[in-house]
Structures are given as structure tokens and as C-alpha cells.
Amino acid sequence: MVEGPGATRNGRKVLPLVGLVLKELSIQQAGGNDNGRKSNDSIATDLRPEGRLLESTFSVGKEVFLILGPVLPVILNEKENSNNNTNKEDEIKTDKSGKPIALRLHFGMNGCLTVRKVDQPSKLAPWRKRDKSSNKCTIAFGNSNGDSSTIVIETVASTCTFISAVVARSKLDRLRNKDVCSDSTTFEAKEVMESIIEKRPTSMVCDAILDQERFPGVGNIIKIEGLHKAGVHPRRLVETLSTDELMRVIIECRNYAMGWLSNGRAPSKKVYNQMRCLSCKNGRVKMVKMGKDLSRVTFWCERCQPLTATRSGLANASMQTNNEQYQQTSSVKRIKELDTKNNVAEKQSMCASSYPRYSCPQHGSKRLLLRRVRNKSSPNLHRLFRTCGVRGCQYFCWADSHFPKCKCRPCGSGSTKAVLKVSKTERTGGQWFLSCAISSSSGNSGGTGRPKNSKGCSFFQWATPEQLAPLSNDLSPLT
């Protein structure tokens, strides 16, 4: 999800365009159909964005607003003269009030925004250009004096809607002091804390700090890392937190967001998408889908973030971590133990049976990346593979050759190799399991040759340390 820092940076990209006139707006909906802005139901038909002056732009939380003034008379006259074959009454239709409107941009899980001159090539990555499963929006701005130079804004995986400029500005006035990415002279941590205590006293803290009316701009990553840095368990209720604990959570979320904003990328993640805590080095990271408002995958360290901050709680968490750590000893550690016992024969046997070796012929094994097939039309959906991180290198190898096969017969060009996934439930959150490849891709029949909503053979098996060991530290819960 594009969080506050990403939205703020997108808003800054648009800032130099203030004073230009919107010349054209087109929206390509998911599925690849480009019918122009009229195809988007979110854009009212009685509004005319073309010809409006970009008066200002700002970001609030995870949203970017472009304030567009009334249609300029000069632009209207140019349009009338250049469209002799169209109905003038339909062509120059505009809103009756003539008041400014706001174009609201809200970015999805992997949305982006780029700005370029019209004669420059698109800055979008090739995979974004090919992606037909996300909305795309193109906005062209130019000078009102007839200059042919045009600046183009391209967005991917974002929603574009028109709202009243008054509503947009009132939202900025109401939330600017709480925005996690506001400048240091504007942000008021105390105001955020008081708002959370007043409106969300019985909520879990993981829900309360994601409330965009209480703490705008905070997303799942900021929430997870802020709670971890503050040493607060995500399940604790707001009313059970002391003012110092809640303030510490707010400050740590703010610090993480500002580090993200200034560097252009998220700071190092200690528990997010990790299997072991990178702060204490030993604590097991739990992963569970939680949240009453919005169920999100949440990570936390059992040792650094005990549910009860008492000494007995810390001791119990430490004991539990040690027991689980002993029970889930990996094959890598087992091999090291065998080394100390000089049990060479057992070591060689283990390596030969459960350690496939992967190496790029040109660049070796250090540049290899572990990835998962995400293309929903692929017959190998969710399978793990390795590829070389060197740009232009064509190395490819399946990383699941040592996984068992499920009981399904091959269907079309599909694979019957079981796929590795991770549990997100309360009782088994964070544990890896192998399941039927067909059932894992049910409902995605396009191009796979598999029946829609097929349940497969219901194959299920908890992954063993020997099955996980070949994937080494490259494997992460969100791979």
C-alpha cells in the first residue's frame, strides 16, 4: 500500500505544475479498455476538467488533491473553434456553479505517479505498462498562452475522482496537524494522542493508529515498525496504554515515516516481512491477519513486544520463544551441530538429499533472487523460482524442485507441484505449509486450463525444516 510518505512525494512532483491549464484527462480502466474519462462513473458528467487552471496541489494522508479553478474563457473559445463537427452545447458543457473542483488521487497497493514532458518517453517501468489489471490515468497540462509545450502526469493503480474543492481544503485544514508527514512546525503529536484516546479508547492500538481521521498517512508498514520500535504489542487496547506508551508509538511512527519520506525508501524493517526479529536477533516474529476495521497482516516480535509488559510476561515470552526456536531448528543449524561432532557422513547425506544447489553460470550464486509467480493467468501461479539480479541476465530456475507433488493429475499445461504458502491464522500464524497447486489458484481459470473454482485434491502438509532449508534466508513471509 502506498502510505503517507509515498503520497507526499507524489504531491511534491505535481507542485511545479501549479499555474498550468489542464488540457486533457483520460482514464484507462482495469482490463485494458480505454474509453476516456466518460467511461469512469466516478467522474460526474456535468463537470468539465479540461481548460481549468491548476490553482494548487497538496497531499493529506494517503491522498493527493489537485485544485482546479473555473474553466478559462480563452480555452472555451479555442475549443469552440476547433470542434466544428461536434455539438457545441455538449462540448462546452461545464458545471453550473463555475466554482473550483478538486481531482482526488488515491493510490492502491503499488500505485505510482510520474511527471514528464510530452516529447519524453514514459517513465513507467515496462511491467507497469503491460499491466492491464490496474487503472491508469493520464493528465496533460499546458500553458494558457497557446504554448505547445505540455507536461504529462501518469498514474498507475490509482483511483481518480472529482470532489468539491471546499471539501478537499477543509480536509487539509482539519487533518494537517495530525498528518504523519506534516513538517515539523505543523505536526502535533499531542493532538493525535488526544484524538485517539477520545475516539478509539476500546480499539486495539493496531486499529487506532491506522484510522486516517486520527493519524492520516500511517499505513501497515509504518504501523508495524512503529509499534515494534515502541515495544507495544499490536493487540493491546488503547485504554490499557499509558500516555507515555501511546505517545511513544506516535513518535516512532512519525520518525519512521519521516525517514521514509526523506530517503525515498522505507528504512530497514526489523519485523515486517521477517521470520526472526532483527532487533533482538532471537525473538520469533509472529504474523497474523488482525484488525476489526481493516484486517491486515501484522508482524510483531514475541520477545520485544509482549502482550503484558510485566516481568513474568517477559519471562514467559522468552521461554516460549526459546522452546519454539528449539523445536524449529533449521537444517542449517543441524549441519553446524554435525560439524562440531565430526559427523561427516550424516552431514554429506543431508546435503545431498535436501540441498539443491542454485548458481547463475555467469554471475554465481550471490546475485540470485527468490521470487514467486504472480501472473494470475500462468499455469504455475504461486510457484517459487530463482532468477539472477543482474540486469539483462536470463537465468531462471524453479526453486521448488524438492517439494512433493500433490495428487492431482496434470491439467492442461499446469503443474502438480505443491506450492509453499504461509499461515496467517491466529493459532498457526507464521508457519509454512505445502498445499495443492490447483486449489491455491482456484477462481483464476484464465489461460490455465483449470476449471474455475476447482478445489483440486486438497493436498496439505506442514513444511519441514529440510524443505525450507534450501530456500535459506531468501524466503520471507510475503515472498
Q: Any overview of this molecule?
A:
This protein folds into three domains: 4-175, Alpha-Beta Barrel (N-terminal domain of MutM-like DNA repair proteins); 189-301, Helicase, Ruva Protein, domain 3 (Orthogonal Bundle); 345-479, no CATH class. Helix content is 28%, strand content 21%. It contains 14 helices and 14 strands. Strands 1-5-6-4-3-2 form a six-stranded antiparallel sheet. It has a three-stranded antiparallel sheet with strand order 9-10-11, with no helix packed on it. A three-stranded antiparallel sheet has the order 12-13-14. The longest helix has 21 residues, at 243-263. It starts with a helix and ends in an 11-residue tail after the last helix.
Considering the chains and any ligands shown, give keywords for the structure.
single chain, 479 residues, alpha+beta, N-terminal domain of MutM-like DNA repair proteins, 3 domains, six-stranded antiparallel sheet, three-stranded antiparallel sheet, 14 helices, 21% strand
Radius of gyration: 27 Å
- Main beta sheet, described? 6 strands, antiparallel
Query: What structural category characterises the helix and strand content?
Result: alpha+beta
State the CATH topology of the largest domain: N-terminal domain of MutM-like DNA repair proteins
Mean pLDDT value: 79
Order of helices and strands: HEEEHHEHEEHHHHHEEHHHEEEEEHEH
Global morphology:
globular
**Into how many domains do the coordinates divide?**
3
Please state the oligomeric state of the protein chains shown: single chain
The CATH architecture of the largest domain is Alpha-Beta Barrel
Number of helices: 14
Percent range for helical residues?
Answer: 25-40%
Say which CATH homologous superfamily of the largest domain is assigned.
MutM-like, N-terminal
Strand percentage, roughly?
15-25%
CATH class of the largest domain: Alpha Beta
Poorly predicted sequence stretches spanning 5 or more consecutive residues: 35-45, 75-97, 310-342, 442-453
